[in-house]
Structures are given as structure tokens and as C-alpha cells.
Amino acid sequence: ATVIRREDYAAPAYWIRSVELTFDLDPAKTIVASRLTVERHADAAPGAPLVLHGDGLVLLRCLADGESVSFRQDDGLLVIDNPPDQPSFTLEIRNTCAPEKNTQLSGLYTSGGGFFTQCEAEGFRRITYFLDRPDVMAVYTVTLRADKAKYPVLLSNGNLLEQADLPNGRHMAKWHDPFPKPSYLFALVAADLVCREQRITARNGKEHLLQVHVRRGDLDKTEHAMNALIASVAWDEARFGLPLDLERFMVVAVGDFNMGAMENKGLNIFNTKYVLASPATATDDDFAGIESVVAHEYFHNWTGNRITCRDWFQLSLKEGLTVYRDQEFSMDMAGSASARAVLRIDAVRNLRAVQFPEDAGPMAHPVRPDSYSEINNFYTATVYEKGAEVVRMMATLVGRAGFRAGMDLYFQRHDGQAVTCDDFAQAIADANPGSALASHLGHFKQWYAQAGTPRLQARGSYNEAARRYTLTLRQSGAPSPGQPEKQPGLVPVLMGLVAADDGRALPLKLEGEAQATGTERVLVLTEAEQTFTFVNVEAPPVPSLLRGFSAPVTLDDGLDDAALLVLLQHDADAFNRWEAGQRLSLGRLLAALPGDADLPPLDDAYLQALRRVLRDDTLDPAFKDQVLQLPSEVYVAEVVGSEVNPQRIHRLREQLRGQLASALRDDWVWAFEAHQVREGYRPNAAQAGQRALANQALRMLVLDAVASGDTVWPGRAYQRFKDAGNMTDRFGALSALVDAQSPLAEPALARFHALFAGDDLVIDKWFNLQATANEPASGGGLQRVKALMQHADFSLKNPNRARALLSGFCRDNPAAFHRTDAAGYVFWADRVLELDAINPQLAARLARAMDRWRALAEPWRSAAREAVARVAAAPRLSDDVREIVTKALD
Ligand code: DPP
Ligand code: ZN
């Protein structure tokens, strides 16, 4: 496979300014007629060859300005060696494709009896020949023709111009999108759908039609998605002054979809998972996921669609920024400061669980990568989540108003263009002259260029007599593929000083400053090492650094338990309170790791501190839930970094959970009982927090009961499972039984399946719960997963189902997956190969379960390497999977 490099970017020799597409839709053979207005690039020689992308198409004819023109097909390209030598001409192409054979779900495919498209990143070339690259922006007019009974709804981007019946039971619809767009934003849908509609009036008085299209029978599950869409439209107008620019905005749900959703202009296509929800079938997490994905795709309308990427190396230009925007939206929707902190904690947990390992492994790449073989492999946590952290740091450095001014300038300069990450950073900096961002833009941009998680070391010392506190910060970075040496970047360290004696926030005055500037400030680190001296520090302080996780780094601040206990109890920053609790738990696990002894009994100080948090009535339940949740096994493994023994980590963490379950038993009983929601179900942050804490308490109570042979709590959990009025509580109770390996788990699972048979999204949960179930001491997780693959409801062809079972097991169940007999790895290799023949994108995602094989201890390491090598040696491999396994072996 060829490697594409960022430095090789060149503008195309031709632009395509307008596209007229006509589709005669048929599952076996769809005919696509395309009429393109082609314009020669000012810098290109007259008559330069025109090279179009195409993939898996059958070409029927090709005319230039109405005349036949000679062409050749060369490795997926359509080359017209002698196009007309005028500055602009018309190219007419006719080709066919086979939607029903398209199991890759890229391009035009069928799902549930309808037609759907997915064109990002390079799917449009699987529909017709085109300059399928994001810097080529054209105006699209699309005519769809199809059987009217089977496909009563015909949709494409933009506005509906015309609709009519045709002979032979067919009908047509013609759509026009006035905004020039890259091909990856093209979409069509032809299916038997119903829709929820809502008319809204924007702030500027304009009317818009919002629609959510779903399969018959799903209409009652669309209210939440519609509400999220309405809220997103209002939020983008209020917060960023960005209005909806189309008369009509459509969302369509489809059951077979590789990603979460896709921001096609005016016609967002969504995985059903991020549209459909009712209290009976979706959990609070599902509701929150829908709200954030609907918002994310909607926000792309400006950050992605109006201003798009010059090339795919700039993917984070739209994704990092849009994730930042959807995170801010969710925080604003959640309301209280505490609810915002809980969302921030979730985001950081996710970053550490997925992005940190990525950045430490063979697929490590900068937020703006330098090269790739298969772009689909670069829709990563680094581009998305670390990219969002980079935007968040800019916002921290220039402030809320400064960031808004930067966004305004970005749109003033670049609306309608395809641009780069540099253009974005420049606009934010230029709008904020004199800011730390503007004065150190070069340092800051290292965040786009360097891979790996930087390490921040902090050491402080307090001089009681002089009342001075000196804080030395050092930054460094470990080598990553292709980047042996790292340069210092710009690290914004939001911080405060907390009095060690009573936890009060101390005023901050740096040496040389006239007066204190409050109790919280940002230290800007740009050198490898810098020392900050605080004066008039009236008491010995505990430094609270990197508040709100102000930079995506690992922090070594050398704080001992006593200091962490102060922060857990008193820090004014909720994120750092949580972090202190996590570190206390992590410390106990890490201390016990060497050797093979059991976890020693937990100390009173730690237990008391957790108990105090749980019982503190000034804290929100959602925050308590976060503090009481232990760091994940994956995160512990990342902190350990090398010679990782997944079984040992699992065992110690289970013992820690067991001790917490038993030592805090009365507190868990109280927490369970005190957090029952009495009013009707609402998927809001306040209710969700109560349910989360009650469900965690139930889980601990069942765990403790099963360990001690008591049957009361398992019985109560089963009862709750049966009687629950919503999916969050039902699934919480079911998970508690499965997690504790209660004998009631099996009957509950069977009952759950019977209750929700045919509801695909719920059945996905049923598969996933079993795939991620706690491994019994006797083993058996793998056997269960193999048996589930034979279940009548299982299919590798449906991405949600395949992910629920296979990624659930290989990526989210370390103890069951990392077997000493290597059977987990053999299973992984077989499934990657099997899936690769159907859907390479999905196979490549599963392949990444082995990214961190080098960090494993023996015997896992050798066995894992062997499995990766076996996949790499397979005779027929997609570019997608090949890139992943080749890099893993490098
Ligand atoms: N659909 C993906 C997203 O919105 C890719 N653009 O992030
Ligand atoms: Zn996106």
C-alpha cells in the first residue's frame, strides 16, 4: 500500500465547480449519470491530464463537451490524458455500482431494504468517478429515481426542487444544495421511512424545517434526538453566532453504519444508536450520547462544512474543534458547575483509556499526522479527543471572549474555503494579540506536530520563614514512531495553592507582581524547565496543578497521601478533587503490584476519605459516583507502562473493589436507598446522577453479598431488574448480577433477551454485557463469546453487533482476553481476518486491540506478537488492516 505524505500536498490540476447527478436506484445495479463542470487550475498547463478517482465501479461512457474522449483506467483511477484544452469544459460520465454487494458500508449501500450512503473519507469514489478530495468543492444537483412502493422517501442534500411520479411504479425527486461542498459531504437516502418534524424560528426570524427520519415503528423513539437538534441550533447561534443556513435540516437513522454519525450537508446520516431512545430501551448514557452526537454533527455544519479541510491530514481542524464544541454544548446543557465537572471527568477518563494508549503505541501520531496509508485508520482518539484538548488549551489561553473573537475571525477569513490547522490557530492568535498564545504560537503548535503524551513534572518547596513557595515545572516527551526527540511545547497549567492545614484557597502572588491575582491562575510553561516563585504565602501549601485537566499530559507532582487527602477533601476544583481520589486508589494498586500477594487491607484514612465523600450532602450524586469509581484496568496498565500483567491488575483491582464493597457496606445501603428517583423518568443530569450512584451502590452490595454467601441483595437486584421502570435501572440491576456472577445472572439474562427480542439496540447491550462480563476464576469468558457468535441474533455484517461482542471482548475485557493459553489472541486473529473480508474499516478497529502488545509481560507478549504476525502474513489483507498490523510489528 502506498504511503501518502502531508508534505506532498499539491492543489489539483482541475477543479469541479458543479455536479449534476442522476441515480436510477436498484440494489443489484444502480446507474449513476454524472455531469461535471470542470475548470482548469490557473497554474495547470492547458490540456493537462485529468485524473479522477474511482473504486469498484463499472464505467459505461465518458464524454467531454459532448464528444467521446479517450481514457484509461489505472489502479482505481480514471485518467483522461487529453481533455479539452479550454479553461473549462463539461464531463459526462455514466457508470454502475452494486449497492447490495457493498458490505464495506462505504459509498452507496443497502440496509434494511433501503439505500444509504457514507462518503467520508473516500466513499464517493465508490459511487462515481470524481476528484474525491476535500479541497474540490462543488455545487450539487441530484435527481433520484426509484420504485415508489419500496422507496417512498427520496432524500439528498439541500432543498427539494421537484418530486413526481414516473411510469412503472417509479418516482423521482430532485434536490439542490446551494453551498459548494467537498464530495465527502454528499449523501442520498432512498427508503421506507417515517419522520418527526418540527418547524423552528431562528433568532434572526428565519424559519427552518427539522426532520428526523426513522424506520416505521421507531417514531416514538425520536423525541430526544429532535430536542437535542433544536437545542443545538439555539446553542450555536447564542454561543458562537452561527445560525442554521438551510431551509431544511434532516437527520436519518440507519441500522448498519460504520461510525456514530455523519455530517453530510443538510442530510446527517446517523447510526440508530445515536438517534433512537425511549426510557424503556435506552440508558442515561445512551440519552447523553445521542445529545452529544446530534450536536456534534450539527455543529459540523459550520466547523467542517462551511469551512472544510484542505486535505485529510487536517482532519482535526474539523474534528478536534467540533468535539470541543459538542463538549461545551453538553456542559452548558448540564447546567451546574458540578455537572460540568462530571462531564469533564468523563472526557478525561475516556482520553486516558483510549488516547493515551494510542499515543504510547505503534499507531501514535500527531494531531495533524504526517503520513498514512489508509485514511480511515486516522479517525482516531488523537485526532478527535486530543485535538479537542488542543482547542480547549487555546480557549484557556485566550479566555472565553477571546476564543469567540478568534472563531469570528476564522469565519471572516475562511468561510467557504478548505483550509489547514495552521489557518485555525493563526486566526485564534491574531484575534488575541498580546495573549500567551499569540506570543508563543510556535511553541503551541508543537501540539499539532508532536505525537506522544508529554510528561509534566512539578516539584515545590515552601520556605516558612520567607513565606515563599517555589514551584519548578519540567516538561519532556518520550520518543514515538518517527519522532525520536521532542521539543518543549506550550503547557497551560491552571493551578491554585491549597493550605495544607485547613484546605483554604491561598491568594496567589508571583514574585515581582504588585498584588495577588485571586486564588487560581494559569502558569504558561514554554521552556523545558521553569521556576515560579510565589510570595506572601501564609501557610504551607499543597499545589493543585492542572486543574480541570488544563493540558493533556501526565503529571508527576510527587504528592504524598497526606497531600492528596487534603485535595480530595478541600480542592476548590472539582476535577482535581476527583483526581486526588483516583490517585489514592491507583497508589494502592501500584504498591501491591510486585509479587503475587493479595491486596493488603485498606487503610482507614483512605476508607474514611471515600466514606466522607459518599456521605457529603454538599456534593452531587453524579460527582460522588465518579469519585467512588476506580481507575480502569486499561488505565492502570498504561500507568504501569511495561511488563504489564493484565491478570494481576485485574485480580488486585477486584480485591480493591471487594474491600470497598465490604468496608463501606452500610454506606452503600444508605446510598442505594437515598438515591431512588421518585418522580417520572427524565434523562437529565440531575436524575442520571442519582441513578448512577444508586446503581453503583447496588453493584457493590450484590458483589459483597455474593462474596459472603448472602442472598438478600442479589434477590433485591433481581426484583429491581424485573420491575424497573426504565432501562438505566433495569440494566444497572442486570449488570450488578452479571458482574458479581450471581446465580441469578443467567435467568436474568434469559429474561432480558426474551423481553427485548427484535429490538436491535437493546440486544446489542445484551451481547456487550456478556462480552465484557467479569471473567470467572475458572475461565470461560471466551467460551461464552464463541457460543454467542453462534447465536441466531449474531451477525458480523452489522457493525453495532460485531462491535458489541468482539470489541467488547477483545478491547474492553482485559482479564478474559489476555489468557495465558493465548486462546484469546488466536480468537482475535481469526475474527480480524474474517471481518476483513466483509468490512475492512471495522476489522482495522478490532485489529487495534493488540496495539499495546509490546507493553505486556511474558507469556502474553510473545503469544500476542505471534497472533499479530499471523494476521500480517495473511495472503489477502485490506490496506486498512495491513497498516495496523504492520505498524504494530515495526
Ligand atoms: N462522522 C464522523 C464525525 O462526525 C466523521 N466526520 O466525526
Ligand atoms: Zn465529527
From TrEMBL:
Keywords: Aminopeptidase, Hydrolase, Metal-binding, Metalloprotease, Protease, Zinc. Aminopeptidase N is involved in the degradation of intracellular peptides generated by protein breakdown during normal growth as well as in response to nutrient starvation. The gene is pepN_2. Residues 225-432 form the Peptidase M1 membrane alanine aminopeptidase domain. Its EC number is 3.4.11.2. The keyword Transcription regulation does not apply. Its cofactor is Zn(2+). Belongs to the peptidase M1 family. This is Aminopeptidase N. Pfam families: DUF3458, DUF3458_C, Peptidase_M1, Peptidase_M1_N. InterPro entries: Aminopeptidase_N-like_N, Aminopeptidase_N-like_N_sf, PepN_Ig-like_sf, Peptidase_M1, Peptidase_M1_dom, Peptidase_M1_pepN, Peptidase_M1_pepN_C, Peptidase_M1_pepN_C_sf. One of its GO terms (molecular function) is metallopeptidase activity. Residues 73-185 form the Aminopeptidase N-like N-terminal domain. One of its GO terms (biological process) is proteolysis. Residues 561-889 form the Peptidase M1 alanyl aminopeptidase C-terminal domain. It catalyses: Release of an N-terminal amino acid, Xaa-|-Yaa- from a peptide, amide or arylamide. Xaa is preferably Ala, but may be most amino acids including Pro (slow action). When a terminal hydrophobic residue is followed by a prolyl residue, the two may be released as an intact Xaa-Pro dipeptide. Residues 452-556 form the Peptidase M1 alanyl aminopeptidase Ig-like fold domain. It is an enzyme of class 3 (hydrolase).
